[in-house]
């Protein structure tokens, strides 16, 4: 009941904010148009590039009208960390293929851990909301594609449709996954509590037991760095697995992990 009340409150606040922003912006635009029409622009040269102004969905336009603080909160809440499923989630702990591919970049100092997982199933819906297009609008998409690329784009759309109809097991078995890279660096300092070498994780990946055991064999995780405010899906779990680690991230990344 508490969560429902919070969600209702957020929705009500957003609705009021959207309405207020729309009225304020409409008023400001009317005044701006009047001021603009009274100015002499005879000496202004036309822009040398011809282009068609993109038409964004109404939802995007309304969000852009919101005050920065409300917009940041709603966007952070909408993009809060939500880890995707991988082979271990779908096939079990003894899954094959292994979702982790570890490569030593510098002997006993730096490693790259490539973590493979299923693509976000909500991407097609998000694409339609943002750009007004989806795989169901193939004809309208192809209408704007240069003739020499029509066959390629049509084939890509058909392949995407087939992938959307696959089960998670089929996607894993056929390698229809995406990936992220985590870098692991051994620092030149040791941890005072454990006397182990300190490790730094850059862009942390999903922490299943098998990768945690491997990290423990290399040293003590002292720092976790999130180099982007976009890729934060694994940050909360990594900080829970390594509670003593120092977290380094952008302010908006912290906000996303706390909403």
* Oligomer status: single chain
For the record, give the distance between the C-alpha atoms at the N and C termini, rounded to a whole number: 18 Å
The counted number of beta strands is: 6
- Radius of gyration from the CA trace? 24 Å
**Shape category:** globular
Mean pLDDT: 76
Structural class: alpha/beta
Give the biggest sheet: 6 strands, mixed
Total helical segments: 11
**Helix amount:** 40-55%
Quote the beta fraction. 15-25%
- Stretches where pLDDT falls below 50 for ≥5 residues? 26-38
Across the major sheet, the strand order is 1-2-3-4-5-6
Order of helices and strands: HHHHEEHHHHEEHEHEH
List the helices and strands and how they pair.
Layout: H1 2-37, H2 58-65, H3 68-78, H4 87-91, E1 100-106, E2 110-117, H5 123-131, H6 138-142, H7 150-164, H8 168-173, E3 178-190, E4 197-202, H9 209-218, E5 220-225, H10 235-241, E6 246-248, H11 251-258
Parallel strand pairs: 4-5, 5-6
Antiparallel strand pairs: 1-2, 2-3, 3-4
Helix pairs in contact: 3-11
Word description of this protein:
The protein has 259 residues and is α/β, with parallel strands linked by helices. Helix content is 46%, strand content 17%. It is built from 11 helices and 6 strands. A 6-stranded mixed β-sheet has the order 1-2-3-4-5-6, with helices on one face. Helix 3 (68-78) packs across helix 11.
């Amino acid at each position: 009941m508490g969560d429902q009340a919070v969600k209702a409150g957020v929705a009500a606040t957003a609705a009021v904010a959207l309405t207020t922003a729309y009225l304020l912006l409409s008023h400001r635009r009317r005044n701006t148009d009047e001021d603009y029409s009274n100015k002499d622009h005879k000496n202004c040269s036309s822009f040398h590039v011809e282009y068609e102004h993109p038409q964004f969905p109404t939802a995007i336009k309304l969000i852009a009208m919101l005050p920065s603080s409300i917009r940041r909160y709603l966007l952070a809440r909408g993009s809060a960390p939500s880890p995707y499923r991988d082979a271990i989630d779908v096939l079990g702990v003894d899954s094959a293929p292994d979702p982790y591919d570890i490569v030593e970049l510098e002997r006993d100092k730096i490693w790259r851990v490539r973590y493979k997982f299923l693509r976000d199933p909500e991407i097609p819906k998000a694409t339609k909301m943002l750009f007004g297009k989806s795989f169901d609008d193939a004809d309208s998409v192809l209408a704007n594609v240069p003739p020499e690329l029509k066959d390629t784009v049509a084939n890509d759309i058909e392949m995407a449709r087939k992938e959307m109809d696959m089960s998670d097991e089929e996607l894993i078995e056929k390698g229809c996954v995406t990936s992220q890279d985590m870098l692991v660096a051994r620092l030149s300092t040791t941890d005072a509590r454990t006397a182990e070498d300190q490790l730094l994780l850059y862009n942390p990946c999903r922490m299943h037991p098998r990768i945690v055991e491997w990290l423990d064999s290399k040293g003590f995780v002292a720092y976790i760095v999130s180099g982007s405010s976009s890729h934060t899906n694994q940050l909360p779990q990594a900080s829970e697995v390594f509670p003593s680690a120092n977290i380094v991230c952008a302010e908006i990344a912290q906000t996303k992990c706390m909403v």
